[in-house]
């Protein structure tokens, strides 16, 4: 009997699948709690947990439907391709449970701390989205796909690079401050050097984050800023980039040069604004702080400069984006666009002509609109059947 036949047979018996899943899961828990040191069984706990949890979710979870999209878009096409034309959607709950188990197991066995940090929350939220995906009604397909694409992009930007770096360096306790080392501190130092501010980026004893040292013009001592990931703005960049990518993919029906330019512009400007924030903070301290202020100006800039830069950048970016976006949205022909425009207009329910302030109109209690003359001729509402009587040339009243 082939593997596919075994899976089909197991799928018909949810009780047997649940039993197998529970046995496998408890075996994994037992191996994790009381690991046989020095044996290959020591490392079977996590696979058992993942397999058992996935089979359990697959056996008991309601069958999900393939994604249905009222209006086609790039996100829908990409997801259908990734899910083998929707066939893998029913496995989303099992995949979500497996991700939860894998993350919690990683924290207990390999991570420097078992606490749920920001990256763990991002991973777990993505897992919960997968679990709930099949429960979302088809009429909310666009919103559902937006959330799924958002969390996929967020994990690709903030979590996947960290996991790759940990695997590359064979250091599973490597800090998330790796982002500051790679994507923020060197770039900030380079921009400051171009602006004439001598500085150096270096390691700080007792910290995993990089330090940026400079000497303010009005102070005789060096100042070191430790750029940790929590204050680097990388999470804000990741959230914006993911949301913007999800927005573009769910709003556009086909790839185009303007769409890629818009997406690239959003990512680039978001990252540039993040570097600019750190540069402004250092410049404020370099030029304005004195022995009397004791770096208070730089601390104020640290608290408020990011918000001001963010607002200015958002205003500039969206003013450009909104001019570019409508030109490439959709693939409708001019004739189809005209039909949509005509349907969007408010029209008389009897003669189907547009309602305008020039021609007197009235509204039935059922919500339908009509020209008064049309309703006076018809004498009843075509939608609900309510009768109307004529009280003068243009006066129409329900009875």
What does this molecule look like?
The chain has 399 residues and is mainly α. It has three domains: 3-67 and 83-136, no CATH class; 178-331, no CATH class; 345-398, 2-Layer Sandwich (Herpes Virus-1). Helices cover 58% and strands 7% of the residues. It has 15 helices and seven strands. The chain has helices at 3-12, 14-33, 45-60, 74-82, 92-109, 118-132, 141-158, 160-169, 178-183, 185-194, 234-251, 257-288, 296-328, 334-344, 372-378, and strands at residues 199-203, 210-214, 223-226, 361-363, 369-371, 388-390, 396-398. The strands form three sheets. Strands 1-2-3 form a three-stranded antiparallel sheet, covered by helices on one side. α6 (118-132) runs antiparallel to α7 (141-158), α10 packs across α12 (257-288) and α12 runs antiparallel to α13. The protein is flat and about 90 Å long.
Blueprint of the fold:
Layout: H1 3-12, H2 14-33, H3 45-60, H4 74-82, H5 92-109, H6 118-132, H7 141-158, H8 160-169, H9 178-183, H10 185-194, E1 199-203, E2 210-214, E3 223-226, H11 234-251, H12 257-288, H13 296-328, H14 334-344, E4 361-363, E5 369-371, H15 372-378, E6 388-390, E7 396-398
Antiparallel strand pairs: 1-2, 2-3, 4-5, 6-7
Helix pairs in contact: 2-3, 3-5, 5-6, 6-7, 7-11, 10-12, 11-12, 12-13
């Amino acid at each position: 009997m082939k593997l596919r036949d075994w899976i089909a047979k197991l799928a018909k018996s949810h009780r047997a699948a649940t039993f197998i899943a529970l046995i496998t899961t408890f075996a994994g828990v037992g191996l994790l709690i009381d690991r046989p040191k020095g044996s290959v069984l020591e490392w079977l706990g996590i696979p058992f947990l993942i397999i058992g949890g996935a089979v359990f979710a697959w056996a008991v979870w309601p069958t999900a439907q393939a994604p249905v999209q009222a209006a086609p878009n790039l996100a829908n096409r990409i997801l259908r391709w990734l899910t083998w034309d929707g066939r893998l959607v029913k496995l989303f709950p099992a995949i979500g449970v497996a991700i939860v188990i894998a993350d919690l197991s990683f924290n207990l066995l390999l991570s420097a701390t078992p606490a749920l940090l920001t990256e763990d929350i991002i991973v777990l939220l993505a897992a919960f989205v997968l679990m709930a995906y099949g429960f979302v009604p088809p009429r909310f397909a666009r919103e559902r796909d937006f959330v799924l694409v958002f969390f996929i992009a967020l994990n690709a930007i903030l979590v996947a690079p960290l996991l790759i770096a940990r695997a590359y360096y064979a250091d599973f306790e490597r800090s998330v401050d790796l982002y500051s080392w790679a994507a923020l501190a060197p770039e900030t130092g380079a921009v400051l050097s171009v602006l004439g501010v001598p500085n150096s980026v270096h390691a700080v004893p007792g910290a995993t984050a990089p330090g940026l040292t400079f000497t303010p013009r009005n102070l005789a001592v060096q100042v070191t800023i430790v750029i940790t990931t929590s204050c680097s703005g990388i999470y804000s960049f990741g959230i914006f980039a993911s949301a913007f990518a999800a927005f573009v993919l769910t709003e556009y029906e086909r790839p185009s040069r303007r769409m890629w330019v818009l997406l690239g512009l959003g990512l680039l400007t978001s990252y540039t604004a993040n570097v600019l924030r750190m540069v402004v903070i250092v410049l404020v301290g370099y030029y304005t702080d004195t022995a009397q202020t004791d770096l208070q100006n730089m601390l104020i800039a640290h608290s408020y400069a990011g918000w001001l830069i963010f607002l200015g950048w958002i205003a500039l970016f969206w003013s450009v984006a909104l001019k570019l976006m409508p030109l490439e949205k959709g693939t409708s022909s001019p004739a189809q666009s005209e039909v949509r425009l005509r349907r969007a207009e408010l029209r008389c329910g009897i003669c189907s002509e547009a309602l305008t302030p020039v021609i007197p109109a009235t509204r039935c209690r059922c919500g339908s609109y009509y020209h008064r003359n049309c309703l006076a001729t018809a004498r009843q509402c075509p939608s609900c059947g309510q009768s109307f009587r004529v009280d003068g040339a243009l006066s129409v009243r329900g009875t």
